[in-house]
Amino acid sequence: MGSCSRKSRWLALTGAVIVSAVVGVGAVSAAGSKESVVVGNVEFSAGGGFSPKALSKTALTPIAFTAEGKIGTLDGTHPPALKEVLVEADKNSAVTTKGYPTCKSGQLQSQDTSHAEAICKSAIIGKGTTSVEIAFPESKVVPVNSKLLVFNGGESGGVTTYYIHAYITVPVPAAIVTTVKIKRIHHGRYGLLATASIPKIAGGSGSVTSFSLKIDKKFTYKGKQVSVLSAKCPDGKLQAHATAVFADGTRASTEFIRPCIGKG
Amino acid sequence: MKGFMNRLLIASLTVLALTLGSVGAAQAADPPPFEVLGFTARALDPVGNDYTVAGGHPEEAVTSFRFPVMDTGLGGIVPVEPPKSTFTELPAGFLANLAGVARCPLSKLNPGNYSTACPGAAQVGTVGVSINGSTGSPIGLYNLTPERGYPLELGFTYLNKPIVLYPLLRSRTDGYRATVAVLGAADFAFTGADVQVFGVPSAHTGAGVPGLPALINPTDCSAGAPVTRMIVDSWTRPGRLTVDGFPDLSDSRWKTAVAPAPPVTGCDNPKLAEQFDETTIEATPLQTPGGPIQADQPAGLGFDLHFSQANDPTDPSSAIDPDIPATPPLKNAIVSMPAGVSISPSAANGLDGCSELASDPAGDQVRYDDTLPVTCPEASKIGTVVGTSPLLASHDPTTDAVTGAEPIGGDVYVVKPHPGDLAPGGQGEGTFRVLIQLESEKYGVNVKLPGTVKADKNTGQLTATFLENPQLPVKDLHLEIEPGPRAALATPVTCGAFTTTTDLVPWSTPGTPDAHPSSSFQVTSGPNGSPCAATPQARPFAPALTAGTQSAGAGQSSPFVLRLTRKDGEGEFSSLEATLPKGLAARFVGIPYCSDAALAAAAARSGKAEQANPSCPASRIGAVTVGAGPGTNPFYAKGTAYLAGPYKGAPMSVAVITPAVAGPFDVGTVVVRNALFIDPETAQGHVVSDPFPKILDGIPLRLRSIEVNLDRPSFTLNPTSCEAKSIDVKVTSTDGALASPTNHFQAAGCEKLGFKPKLSLRLKGETKRSGNPALTAVLKAPAGQANIAKTTVLLPTSAFIDNAHVNNPCTRVQFNANACPPGSVLGTATAYTPLLDQPLSGPVYFRSNGGERDLPDLVADLNGQVHVTLVGFIDSVPIKGTEKSRVRTRFQSVPDAPVSTFVLKLKGGKKGLIENSKNLCKHPGAATVLMEAQNGRTNDFQAPLKTSCAKTKSKKKGKVWAAALGSLVGWR
Questions:
Q1: What is the pLDDT of residue A3?
Q2: Which residue among B124, B128, B337, B548 is least crowded, i.e. fewest CB within 10 A of its CB?
Q3: Cβ count within 10 A of residue B394
Q4: Between A and B, how many residue pairs show a Cβ–Cβ distance under 8 A?
Q5: In this structure, how many other beta carbons lie within 10 angstroms of the beta carbon of residue A231?
Q6: What's the pLDDT score for residue B165?
Q7: pTM, two decimal places
Q8: Antiparallel, parallel or unpaired: β B665-678 and B652-662
Q9: What pLDDT digit, counting tens, does each position of B66-97 carry?
């Protein structure tokens, strides 16, 4: 569990951030607070946290992760589409999926939420909601809401995969599946790199404007209760750095630092 | 009989004398040829010198002539040939006015006994006759009461025979010279004569008005030497006469001699100018007698011209003084009508023209070279004229005293145009010809005055010109162009004062200045008593519209008629736009376009040529009648509507070709092109005309009505919707006003039309979940049924829209610029319609809609002879009780036009719009099709999605689909 946990610790926070990044730029913040970044005309704010706050200084502790955020523009226009999110996560966090059921991308494609849930119910590790703005050229902005389901895609070659499924019915039925790849890095404070490639929504005319997500799945593996996300608190904080790449070339980076209480 | 015997005797004697002479004398020389010798003609002053004062009054006029003679050998001298007729042509403008001299009845000229009973008061001169080698004493020359057919007669008695001299007026070609004829009366062998005419007869006779001159010199100082010509033939070789009784000089038997006189002088005599400057005119439109002159109405014209005349024996108040020269006659008259008075097109109704060209099929009906009345058709007569001259007096039938001037009547005719008078296409200044004929059978007077009327090409203002008028004195000339609905003129469209101006040129020009009398009239009322417009822009403009098909049967073909009219006094049509009702269709099958080249050629043709050989008979789609002109009887020109090709951005056009032939006038062929736009989404026709001609060759058309009758068999087709519609027209006036008349339009009997179109759907290609199959939809509609109004297709839940492929929609700007990005092409569509020769086809785009709907539209961009876009709204319809939804495509505005087959193909694969959410082979599914006809009928059914999968029996057919349909109420 120890070595495995070390690796997984990093993955845990990274995965959470990436999940949020599916719909914007991930943010880690103290509960109840949001951090805003403005790049050019794009403004996004994110908030979230984890619980419990008191974590072992040395051992990974299961956590429940929540994230929420908004993406907008200063002038109120339709925000650019999010193309990719790169997140470097704290080396004291981990993601654990080993022993947890997996789901394939193909199973999720072209499925509505109920079908996706029915087909890969056991692989769900989180849920949430998102709002998307679809703005075709010369057209008004169409707000679309969707449920979010986060599926475990499994681990292969040191890369853990998550799938985030959304199903919109407006203006027409369509399924959107985002793939998140998480791998280990050695970059100072950061130990994980998560890359989320976000498919075009409505052919590129759709942009995420808000999200709300919670990942708290716990499961039993080899007789032990484990969590897909866990963390420890050796120095009183957890830290992440995220870069969001928009379709119009805008790149926004920010760093999130959230306090924790180290125990033991 | 007696005369004949005398002539026979004389002739016999002469022949005998010639015979005897030749035999008896046996001389060597032949007799000299017959000719005129020693001919002199002079106007003299009191001392016997030539009198040359322009317009002046000579003391006397003398003439003398001799014929070659021969000795009879019997002691007689005879002319070599006995003279028969003599014609003495006086110089143009040299006149004898004997109206103030007493007249002697012809019966008194020779009562017998070698004497005359004519009173001395009637003597106007003397005659000395040469006979047998010597000239006798002068004998009296008398003013006779003219016989019917002559204006004047002079006579004397010689050898107990009355010799009558007939002063005649020659033809226009001959300069209206006075010619004194002695017609076959010289039936004695005279060999010459000396004639004297008194300048002031009263000075010789002591009778009549003292000092009243009788002779008048010409007033044309620029004409050179006045020439008097004598023409004579003989009994031996009589000359041929023209149809009007004058010598035909092409016959060499006529012998001529001329006697030139010194040119007249003193045309700058202030007295000439003073006389001429007193000329007055009055010009007034003629409408309802006693009523006000109304604007914008047909009108005749009353035109009075008055010349002051001194020494006028027909006017007791006239000044008598031989020193006062005669008023120089009017040489040229240029009369400019006020702006606004124009030729009335209404006048062309029933109007004919008089031909004055020998090349005309009707021949020369005027003949300026003779003095016979014109033979113009009655339909060419547009007015009357009455003139008076101091030369012709009326007399008391009892006392024979002069009671005034004798009126000479006549008519005004329209003369057919000469080549070049009217510009091809009607774009030039029009030259119109008229003829005034003053004619008196009683006096044997015939004066033909040709005139031209120039019509300004921009304003229509008229300028009438009469050139080279006779050098004859005129007192008054009253001309009336007939009023009435067919009057030749039209009054201005506004009220106000209008002035006619003139430039009157005397024969004594340039020594005598032109006179410029003018005349004004007031237009004080609008047409038919309506209010008066002060400016053209102030006129009302409310044209009336009637339009529709002759038979209202839904879906049936029937001629379409559009008629636009306006009242007198309203603004005139300049152009129009007509928006036809939805569903009013046209069948263009088999109709070739009238080419641009053919239309250009038509515009350059004469109207008659176009009438004889219409430009594009195969392209004919209807008839057009254009009413022009004010009043109750506008002139209606018949034109033809042809189908023509693209024009001014429209896919096709309607060319109206109208031969502008009105009465005797052919102002060419008018081509007015009308762009025919087809609304791409409704197939509604919208016609935009080019500006209508406002004026043709100077004739303001004053368009009153336009009637278009699209009567080509099976051309126009009624809608299959019986909703109330309208035909909306926007008419622009020549003054820029806009009117928007509209006419109700409604087809009938729609309920009789069936509605059973069929739609089949096939998915081709990928059948697995997440695959993108291609879709082919084929719709077939039976003929004779109601057309489709709306179609909704709900795909089964197995069909998603591929999120990744919903990209690159074509913006409307790009679409309108025909520049949609390739990525926006979803497939193709083809529509087959019985209205067109070729199907319409084109790409199917994903096109933005400006936010009217959430998702861009599916647009079939159908091109061909016309451009039609079928717009499908794509959205989703939730299935009750689930989070699922179905893709719905709604064609909400399908044109009301027959389509036999419509094929829509959407791409599959990488560009495929449809994404399978299920394996099609396991879940074949069916689309729900909801159709609504233009007549309100519906046709709803399930269309199974055919696939390339092996056939599997669907257990859900039948009842299940029926149930599904039931749940879709309200989903159209």
A1: 35
A2: B128
A3: 15
A4: 110
A5: 26
A6: 95
A7: 0.82
A8: antiparallel
A9: 999 998 888 788 999 999 999 999 999 999 99
Tokens representing residue B901 in the block:
């087959």
* DSSP-based three-state secondary structure for A41: coil
- H or E stretch covering A6: helix A2-21
Which residue do the tokens 């997500």 mark?
A213
Greatest extent of chain A over all pairs of C-alpha atoms, in Å? 60
Question: B382: part of which helix (H) or strand (E)?
Answer: strand B381-388
The span from the CA of B392 to the CA of B317, in Å, is 16
Determine the residue type at B809. P
What pLDDT, on a 0 to 100 scale, did the predictor assign at position B800? 85
Which residue, chain included where needed, has tokens 């006619």?
A: B500
CB B201 within 8 A of CB B188: no
Residue to mutate among A139, A147, A167, with most B CBs inside 10 A, is A139
The answer to whether A170 contacts chain B (CB < 8 Å) is yes
Q: What share of chain A is helix, strand, coil (3-state, %, to 5)?
A: 15, 55, 30
- End-to-end CA distance of chain B: give it in Å, rounded: 114
Could you tell me whether strands A159-168 and A61-62 are parallel, antiparallel, or unpaired per DSSP bridges?
A: unpaired
Alpha-carbon distance of A165 to B410, in angstroms, equals 106
pLDDT digits (tens, 9 = 90+) for B172-184: 999 999 999 998 8
ipTM of predicted assembly, 2 dp: 0.76
Q: Considering only CB atoms, which chain B residues are within 8 Å of A142?
A: 854-855
Buried b or exposed e, range A104-119, using 16+ CB within 10 angstroms: eeebbbbbbbebbbee
Q: CA distances (Å), B129 to each of A153, B186, B767, B864, in order? A: 150, 11, 133, 99
CB contact under 8 A, A110 and B804: no
What is d(CA B883, CA A117) in angstroms, rounded to the nearest whole number?
A: 13
**In this structure, which amino acid lies at residue B293?**
I
* pLDDT tens-digit series, residues B775-808: 999 999 999 999 999 999 999 988 888 877 777 7
Beta strand B77-79 pairing with B123-131: unpaired
pLDDT exceeds cutoff 50 at B748:
yes
Q: Does the pLDDT of residue B902 top 80, yes or no? A: yes
Residue among B374, B455, B387, B456 nearest B415 (CA): B374
DSSP-assigned letter for residue B34 = P
Measured between CA atoms, how close is B814 to chain A, in angstroms?
11
Percent of chain B with pLDDT over 90: 81
Reported as type and span, the H/E element at residue A153 is strand A141-156
**CA B675 to chain CA mean position, Å:** 28
A119 near B CB under 8 A:
no
> Is residue B95 within a helix (H) or strand (E), and if so which, with residue range?
strand B95-96
End-to-end CA distance of chain A: 18
pLDDT in tens, A152-174: 999 989 899 999 999 987 777 78
Place of tokens 């010619």: B179
* Local confidence band at B23 (pLDDT 50, 70, 90 cut-offs): very low
Q: Which residues pair with B709 in a beta bridge?
A: B561, B623
Residue B972: predicted pLDDT: 60
Q: Does A113 touch chain B (CB under 8 A)?
A: yes
User: In this structure, what token pair is assigned to residue B523?
Assistant: 């237009």
A198 touches chain B (CB under 8 A): no
Q: Tell me phi and psi for residue B778, to 5 degrees.
A: -125, 120
The span from the CA of A18 to the CA of A156, in Å, is: 18
Please choose, from the candidates B451, B338, B444, the residue with its C-alpha nearest in 3D space to the C-alpha of residue B385.
B451
